[in-house]
Amino acid sequence: MLKECAGVSGEELRTSAKTARELYAELRASRGFSLGETDLRVAVNGEFADLDNTLCDGDEISFIPPVSGG
After folding, report:
1. Full set of structural domains in the chain with CATH
2. In this structure, are residues 55 and 20 in contact, taking their beta carbons and an 8 Å threshold?
3. How far apart are CA 17 and CA 26, in angstroms?
């Protein structure tokens, strides 16, 4: 859902965000994501993490929207 909205399958970027929460806020503003931060999970380097964990240079961040289906 987020990939479709952004129009990319992934990207590499430089940011001044210190946390995943700050990074998502930047992306939400620039990409127009409608999901609030409480509606998604985040993974840092392949591991689920808290939105307020400090990010390090080179971290791979994945924002994971809610999943539905049956």
Report:
1. 2-64 (3.10.20.30)
2. yes
3. 8
